[in-house]
Amino acid sequence: xxxxxxxxxxxxxxxxxxxxxxxxxxxxHPEFTEPIVSKVVDARSKSGAMDAATTEDAIRRKDWRNxxxxxxxxxxxxxxxx
Length: 82
Fold this sequence. Notes:
The protein is built from three helices and two strands; from the N terminus they run ββααα. It is α+β, with helices and mostly antiparallel strands. The chain has one domain (about 5-80). It has a two-stranded antiparallel sheet with strand order 1-2. The protein is elongated, with a radius of gyration of 17 Å.
């Protein structure tokens, strides 16, 4: 299964002029469920590929349903849109 996620930022809530739209799309990975992520984090931590702080952060967030808003905000800032 393939999932494509998209973000659209309008110039203003009422101005939806095409040349002022910002659109960003990504292909998500729905297969990364909590059990899979936990195993990946555990393996990378044990191998030394992830440091303790990153591992602790991943474990803290493993049950979050979606932190996509945070990711989207950072992406928009990187692209200079926000």
